[in-house]
Amino acid sequence: MPIANYTTQSSVDKTMGEVIGALTRRGVTRISTVFGSQGEPTGVEFTMQTEFGPRDFALPIRTDGVLATLKRDKVQPRYATPEHAARVAWAIARDWLRAQTALIDAGLMTLDEVMFPWMVAGGRNPQTAFEAYRGQQKAIES
Fold this sequence. Notes:
alpha+beta, 5 helices, single chain, three-stranded antiparallel beta sheet
């Protein structure tokens, strides 16, 4: 079975607007779109208030993995294009964000718990908590 949202027809702009809307309803104090080398949106970065003060987060949208998955799943050729993979990637991110914010809204988790992997830390070379973790694990393996 192909990945979620593989037949979406929603444009990246529309879905990106839904992602930004979901974040703004939760009190972001800053939000910006990250663009790739070809001018395509590749994620959002934002600042939100937490119980420990304002924190920065970076939510990447990686379309290459989606495109590879669509091809691996042998979807119809019209769904296996870079443009469509971007639509699917943003739709999956939107759905993920909806689920995470539902956990926050229901009081099951805090913003910090849900978004921790995407929290940005570090001075000179900022990286997400997940990127820092990955780097440590690779260093241990070496």
